[in-house]
Amino acid sequence: MKDYVKVQMMLDSYILWINDVKNLELEIELLKNDYDVKAVKFQERTGKTNKISIEVEDRLINKESKIEEYQNQRKINEINIAKIDNAVQILSEFEKEVIKLKYLISPTLSWKGIAYKLRAGTSTCRQAKIRAINKMIPLLCR
Known about the structure:
mainly alpha
């Protein structure tokens, strides 16, 4: 049952992951095009310091690490999306449609809406979802 809930949570996150990939690409683009120009401020030091730090270098290092962090997160999301896309391929046509309408397209439909669209009963659609998730467990929970 634990794996069933995990697959259901992955399916619930599918649309979020797709949108997150797009947003991360925009954030990466923004960081790459940000030249981070600031005025240099000269001020008198009040005491001796052993801290050797250059503000510009620190900002560049932070910028590069932020870009790398965003790229890693984007890659993780893309892998999760691809895993779900692959797992859906093993389903019957009816099960695919139920999963697609319930989880993979926005806006997601209610059970009544799915049943109407597929010309089936709501209980039939719910049973198809359960069968589909059980078929997807071996591929998504390793």
